[in-house]
What we know:
The protein has two domains: 2-129 and 275-338, Rossmann fold (3-Layer(aba) Sandwich), CATH 3.40.50; 144-272, 3-Layer(aba) Sandwich (Rossmann fold). A seven-stranded parallel sheet has the order 3-2-1-4-5-6-7. Strands 9-8-10-11 form a four-stranded parallel sheet, with helices on both faces. 41% of the residues lie in helices and 14% in strands. The protein has 14 helices and eleven strands. It is an alpha/beta fold. GO terms for molecular function: transferase activity. Keywords: Transferase.
Amino acid sequence: MNVLTIEGQRLVRDLRALGCTVLDISGSDKRADIHIERPLFFKSLTALLDSRGFRPDVVIWMDQGNLPMVFGLEALDCVVLGYTIDDYCNPWHVPFSACFDAVFVAQRDYVSLFEAENLPRPTRWTPLFCDYERDIDTGADRDIPVSFVGTLNPRNIPDRFPFLESFRKHHPLYTKQGDYRPVFQRSRIVLNQSAIGELNFRVFEALGCGAACLTENTDNGLADIFTIGETMLPPYSKGNVASAESIARKMLARPEELATIAKAGRDLVRSEHTSRSRVAMFLEWAQVLAREGAPARRLAIRQRAAVGVATAMAFIAAELLDPTFARMRQSYENLAQGYTSLWNKL
């Protein structure tokens, strides 16, 4: 199967491992097959594919936290899939999903927003995952009792640094930014914190690396995936340092129980929530949608889909309030105003 990925670096290796021929386009990662520095519209996109002799059977657009750089997906005659990750902080994903023949939503509580669009395409809750080849349990000594790897003082999570520092006052905590694998593969417990209670990549990465995960209590699908006390440590109340420290201390004092939970969590994630399993699912959906004639359904409402894209651009422009983004804001405002009328020219 020929697969065109848009910002799909997390999936490319597994797609190729499953025998697909992959062409990856990215505006953010210079390691992609094609790195673009300016927006790519439909005619330029098809010309680019023709120049490569590449006719995709399926396009997979994957959210990487970046603004869109490739347009005209709604006009392609092959299956187009979308995987939205940070839907909780990117409301433009909802109207933009009109481009897709199926949309996969990482955060369970946001599925209803996509369903409310009433488009002739399915919406499926699809949790995040760990890297099939690299997020592994190496069998190294677990000499780090509790760790946290991630941005230590993110602007969008102002309570993170105070939380970590307060935890450290009560219990040893190893923190760093950068590559998490060498740390998680030596950790007994990985402490997780989210932005708004979402199930983030860290949960799956920690478990894939063989550590037990101590995360916040959330109704956003945690108990649908994991069994508390069997594959996941009892969660702590969001922002409650005393609760998190108490659970960590209690579990470290029960090393056999802790190791059993960590192993069960690892086995669950490695069997059901890896990049390989997600890719296999996307390919299966692509085949089913192609047989059902999904691209023709989308093309039949392509003008409505274009309106969805234009609406998404308006959402983006409205959020670019910082004066330093004035030029970018204007670009997205222009797209919002002119996308539908320019559809046949793009």
